Amino acid sequence: MTTRDSDTYYSGNASPSAAKHRIHWFHYASPQTFYPLAGRLIPWFAALAVLLGAAGMYVGFLVAPTDAQQGDAYRIIFLHVPAAWMSMFLYVVMAFWAGVGLVFNTRLSAMLATAIAPTGAMFTFLALWTGSLWGKPTWGTWWVWDARLTSELILLFLYFGFMALQAAIDDPRRADRAGAVLALVGVINVPIIYFSVIWWNTLHQGASISMKSAPTMAMTMLLGMLLMALCFWMYSIATILARVRCILLERERHTDWCMTELRGTP
Questions:
Q1: Which of 50, 131, 167, 220 has the most neighbouring CB atoms within 10 Å?
Q2: Which pLDDT tens digit goes with each residue over 217-242?
Q3: Taking the domains of the chain in order of start, what are their residue ranges?
């Protein structure tokens, strides 16, 4: 195997300008070039996650006013809602990269999907756990088989199933293809989660933020929630990049560039 990624192809009869643009766009599609780029980006995204998280927690827990009906118990919204957003968003991104890897047989795309799954599962569990903590003082129970809660629980099982299916298959290529099929089929659950409060009569409240109308909450509450959402986003990018670097080293360990990285030589 050469040190160049075999997943990047260029047409021999393409014009120099077209080839230059393709090289520009696909340069980091190679594991050899993506690995150091990811290493340089991780500290920046991690630092942004810490700063945004500190600002979000300060606004949410110290600046935002107390809710007239729920009191201070509502403040768990600053963890619950951003976590729920990320659980759905990361699943869609995971399915996208898995689909790209399935259609174009690109190794890095499949590895990105594999790296996203644990972080998505963590945010899904966090959304369910904080939702239960919020549900006890507001609904009087830890759990109900509400449409949104149930569909979010199914999302957690889809993440677990994706990871378990890939772990059960020894050949990485076959594992990537099998996981991609499951991820793409499971995408149908994401709109069900989002629209469940509209389609069915549920205990779960509707969306507080809508593209069609003004927010129904105080601006400081909205600011705190958006800061925490950005924090979770930056954290996700940092952890996914760190995880995909580990996957790259594991799968590419027999290549010259990987052995050089492992030895730590320039």
A1: 131
A2: 778 889 999 999 999 999 999 999 99
A3: 75-205+220-266
